[in-house]
UniProtKB/TrEMBL annotation:
Residues 443-542 form the Galactose oxidase-like Early set domain. Pfam families: Glyoxal_oxid_N, GO-like_E_set. Residues 1-19 form the signal peptide. This is Glyoxal oxidase. Keywords: Signal.
Length: 557
């Protein structure tokens, strides 16, 4: 054997040893967001939207900086979107007919943008994979299509009739605490003949109640968390039920941002449980200039089961491995929750504490994510074993979302009033992906899924399952990937569906959610997980696909 062929053989062995390396979690940086990604929402199998403040972003449109961008997951590039109004610190969600809406915003700092506080910015459905076709541009008509109230730092979630409930916010530019609150709710499309509904909870939770954490519960009511308080709001009766405070003085809404998520809902009962992590236990009567960027955040996670017995039992407390202000809690298709981003000390908002670091009210970024396993026993749920560490700080104004490929996209971070460079916490345009081990393994594939899923129905999906996967147990997740901003993922939802794999492993029979309250009707992704290996997601329309408000569908449970 010649020397050359020995070398070739050695290389081949080295190559296969490399390929056989155990798949692991990893961070991969790829691409830049064009505009600062302070809000992110997945809008199609290949596209997501980033929104920023109208300022000096590098991406240009019509001869001025853009403040919205369409991100293409196939190319990892961003193209500018044409917005009329300022989307700074807005919320957003999808409607029952598949259109995505960006809600609220701010008074712009540049003349290219109009006042966005009553903003309603419509997008899609956009079916072209590259975002070039009809429906793939933002539609705005501020004179005729707008909210009833000015809302900055509001939260929008889709409810059981497919419309959006828009909760709270502030009227004006407030530097830290909510000093000009919008203590009411409205809907899009509007209900109550366009009147707003006062909500006493918003008044009680001042001054730390911006971006209220709001969830559509499976009975059609809504859970709301602001400051250290929690209520159930009955949308149909317009009544509040007060639940126990989050323990130990922990406050979790802006500017003391912790995060919160509904845990996955499972058949047959779809019992709702909420998980709240991070934030701050500081006293909210201290003036902001007497707070410091070095005040410790809390590591507390609190979990409550939203049933009469669960409420009686109260919040269960456990702790993350690190304190975090501004973390996000991301539901993964296998039912685990990823806790990621944020800092160990300080607060949200820009340059308002006594000693900001550059513009940052927070310091000591947390670079290693943690995983929360809802089914594990108390005290054993949180771990960072096997999770990688990044070197990119994701502090105020960052975003994160599960992608249709099943990995996690992380973008943004800008504790500054505009795009700045060269300071300790400068504006971050690098997009990063957190790849679970399955991204480098043979994965199950959903080869045929109905494009529409009606409620309380059995349907069949065609699948291909690699023979490296030994189990025949399937987890089928129906997911709204949510709208990420300000340490909260508005509208994020995971509903597991009963599912059985056929003996030939070529199809799965699935039972859809019983009704439009368990999964508010609208667009979603279906993911299949086997042996902790998750497929790519397939986009579906859940429910009748009509414009809101839609009628009740399926059966009540
Ligand atoms: C970044 O993404 C592009 C488009 O998918 C791909 O071609 C390229 O290989 C990726 N680069 C890295 C470093 O992963
Ligand atoms: C919630 O905050 C209020 C106002 O600071 C405080 O009086 C109350 O004790 C807190 N609740 C808990 C359970 O810590
Ligand atoms: C900041 O400067 C670095 C180095 O020149 C550059 O790579 C990066 O893109 C800049 N960031 C922004 C937000 O302009
Ligand atoms: C969805 O409904 C909204 C609210 O009525 C409407 O503005 C939008 O045009 C609708 N989208 C489609 C695709 O019908």
């Amino acid at each position: 054997m010649g020397r050359f062929s020995i070398l070739v053989q050695l290389l081949a062995i080295a190559g296969s040893a490399c390929a056989a390396a155990a798949p692991k979690w990893e961070f991969v940086q790829n691409g830049t967001s064009g505009v600062l990604a302070l809000e992110a929402i997945v809008v199609s199998p290949t596209l997501a939207i980033f929104f920023d403040r109208a300022t000096n972003d590098p991406l240009q449109i019509d001869g001025h900086p853009a403040w919205g961008a369409l991100w293409n997951f196939q190319t990892n590039t961003a193209r500018p979107l044409r917005l009329i109004t300022d989307s700074f610190c807005a919320s957003g969600a999808h409607l029952s007919n598949g259109t995505t809406v960006s809600v609220g915003g701010n008074i712009p700092a540049i003349t290219a943008a109009q006042d966005g506080r009553m903003g309603l910015r419509l997008f899609g459905p956009c079916d072209d994979p590259n975002g070039d076709g009809p429906g793939c541009e933002i539609f705005e008509d501020p004179a005729n299509l707008h909210l009833v109230e000015n809302r900055w730092y509001t939260t929008a979630v889709r409810i059981f009739d497919g419309s959006l409930m828009v909760v709270g916010g502030t009227h004006e530019d407030t530097p830290f605490y909510n000093t000009d609150p919008v203590n009411n709710i409205e809907f899009f499309p509007s209900k109550d003949n366009g009147a707003t509904r006062p909500l006493a909870f918003l008044e009680r939770s001042l001054p730390v109640n911006l971006f209220p954490r709001v969830f559509a519960l499976p009975d059609g009511t809504a859970l709301m968390i602001a400051n250290n308080q929690t209520i159930i709001y009955d949308i149909e009766k317009n009544t509040e039920t007060i639940l126990p405070d989050i323990p130990n003085g922990v406050r979790v809404t802006n500017p003391f941002d912790g995060t919160a998520t509904l845990l996955p809902l499972s058949p047959p009962n779809f019992t709702p449980e909420v998980l709240v992590c991070g934030g701050s236990a500081s006293d909210d009567t201290i003036p902001s200039e007497q707070l410091t960027s070095q005040d410790p955040a809390t590591s507390q996670c609190s979990r409550l089961t939203i049933t009469p017995e669960g409420i009686k039992k109260g919040w269960q407390v456990e702790h993350m491995l690190t304190p975090r202000i501004m973390p996000e809690a991301i539901l993964l298709p296998n039912g685990q929750v990823l806790l990621i981003n944020g800092g160990k000390t300080g607060y949200a908002a820009v340059a308002s504490v006594g000693d900001p670091i550059g513009g940052s009210n927070a310091d000591h970024p947390v670079f290693t994510p943690e995983l929360y396993t809802p089914s594990a026993p108390l005290g054993k749920r949180i771990s960072n074993a096997g999770l990688p560490t990044t070197n990119i700080a994701r502090m105020y104004h960052s975003s994160v979302t599960v992608t249709p490929s099943g990995n996690i996209m992380i973008a943004g971070s800008n504790p500054n009033a505009e795009i700045v460079n060269g300071t300790e916490f400068s504006s971050e345009l690098r997009v990063e992906f957190l790849n679970p081990p399955f991204m480098s393994m043979a994965r199950p594939k959903l080869t045929k899924v109905p494009s529409q899923i009606l409620f309380n129905q059995k349907f069949t999906m065609q699948v291909s399952v690699p023979n490296t996967i030994r189990t025949n147990t399937v987890q089928v997740a129906l997911m709204d990937l949510g709208f990420s901003s300000h340490a909260f993922h508005a509208g994020q939802r995971l509903v597991f569906m009963d599912a059985v794999l056929s003996p030939d492993r070529k199809s799965i029979t699935v039972t859809s959610p019983p009704n439009n309250r368990v999964f508010p009707p609208g667009p979603a992704f279906v993911f299949l997980t086997m042996d902790d290996v998750t497929s790519e997601g397939i986009k579906v329309m859940v429910g009748n696909g009509q414009s809101p408000p839609v009628r009740d569908q399926g059966i009540r449970i």
